[in-house]
Write the structure tokens for this entry.
Amino acid sequence: MASKLIIVESPAKAKTLKKFLGKRYKIEASMGHLIDLPKSKLGVDVEENFKPRYITIRGKGKILDKLKKEAKKSTEVYLATDPDREGEAISWHLERVLPIPNNKCRISFNEITKEAVKTAVKEPRDIDENLINAQQARRILDRLVGYKLSPLLWTKIKKGLSAGRVQTVAVRLICEREREIDAFVSQEYWTIEGSFKSKEGIFKGQLYRINGNKFHLEEKSSAEQTAKEIRKQSYVIKRIRERKRKRNPYPPFTTSTMQQEAIKQLKFTARKTMYVAQQLYEGLDIGEMGTTGLITYMRTDSVRTSSEAQNIARKIIKNQFGKEYVPSQPRIFKRRGQSSQDAHEAIRPTDPALKPEEIKKYLNNDQYNLYRLIWERFIASQMAAAEFHGLTVDVTGGSFLFRATGSNIVFPGFLALRGTDSFEETILPPLQEKEKVNLEKLDKEQHFTQPPPRYSEGTLVKTLEENGVGRPSTYAPIVATIQQRGYVLLNNGRFVPTDLGITVNDLLVEYFPEITEVEFTARMEEKLDRIEEGKEDWLQILRDFYGPFAQKLEKAQEKMSKIEIEDEKTGLSCEKCGAEMIVKVGRFGKFLACPRFPECKHTQPYMRLENIDCFVCSQGKIVEKRSKKGRTFYGCDRYPECNFVSWKRPLTENCPECGAFLVEKRKKGQILKECGRPECEYQEKEDESGAKS
């Protein structure tokens, strides 16, 4: 019979540990937190030195009772929750309520492999009080902000609203970016490219300087006049510069960089990335190997890796590519920018020798793709640098200087892992200084300056990390929460603030500027890290925060004006109860809901009417819709009877050739028009002066 009990968070993790530890150990799962602050009230006694009031989470009583019974029957009890603040908190709560006979009961491991788990069991430790204090400080800070600000928003704006300490900063970033875009005034500018013929071939160069000044033309007339002058000149190669440059590989993944690359390459959301990574960490059934963890712990901001893993990677590189692809010494990476906790290794394969293709048949597509991304990033991090040969050629004529650049790969280095197809080589013909060349062709191109782009999930996570806002475990919840609250929408992969989000943000910035500031929030994260290191008093941090916050809260309750935000009515009747449907905003954008919720829970997809007749069926109207991935498209409201759809926004103008409606066509920063009927070839074009015709 089992005499030793180990408690983890999840059944998947329990299954993996059972395989490693044998029959002497009983493995049980807590299913996450069992004890927490109550949902229905603040749960923090501010007057009694911020004493938290912990309770058993509703619905978790049976699990806790079972763990108590198992603990009573066991000679030893070990708590093996995740190796971070939240995992430490789960173990701390369990230690306080379970009958644990042994003095040291906490075990932790950065990877779920047989060796790591068995080593951890032999080296139990005490609960880390510094980790607990840091977790409590964060939990109470978030609770104070959320449970004090939310009622204020209910009374001043609308019932059901909520505010969060870190999420509020993310919403502010998105709102400020939107204002930058609204205020942006696009400027026209032109570039000129010349094609030159030498004795050995033709090459292209960009106009770089005029009369010693860097080239800049704002109007077409200036570009035309400059082109006339350029054509009058004779040209010679004035200078050729050759240089070799190296490109080093990126470090292995942190939580943030893994999310960014998974969003970019795999089209995962931040939340999905963490969900799949959790599966890879906790363990999957790999044929004869059985259930095993495939990656190290996926919540980390460290870029260091163990020397053992580095040596395995170097052997793989030597065998697969050759010894010239292995650097003389293992690569050691250091974190840039803000300090990192560095509690764990970077995210890497637990066994680098386990190649993605070898275990592909045991994984689903998502698991395979993310494992391949992690494996390749780690292996590449230990490979030699890629080497390039660069060439810069300056061609002069009169007061004009054209610059041509070429680059080609001399040694692929780490780029060989995934192929060099993504690197575009530009090969210049053999050229000599003082060689005369002929201007064969001149091309002018119009451009418009572009506003800063809206944040995507990846760039928002990157910005939060670069500014020290949030930590590895918080990025995915931040991104999900601001959508669930209806403060932002993800439109074509980019965040757009809703009217509600802008209203809430403006009020919070006005009355609680520190809470919404990036710098203030980043400093608070640093203080939490210092608590974890035992260098700050967690209660003093709470006192320093709450005093000024309470004063601002009192002022806001007195002076903040009440803003009425009415639900947008639709004129449509609820199919279940007949009430007039209203527009709501959820995680995936707008939708229609019955105003009698929760008595009536009927909802419908939101479709914005464009007030344009469908030319396909002549009976329906064109409506704006949203795909499953959040991309906007347009279709007939009689679907599926009429199957017309288009990605392009329809206009109220009719096509002069066939009578159908026109749609927007974006080209080089300008909005032109074309016929919405695919078989009609009408397009609005520019004449030579740049005017539309």
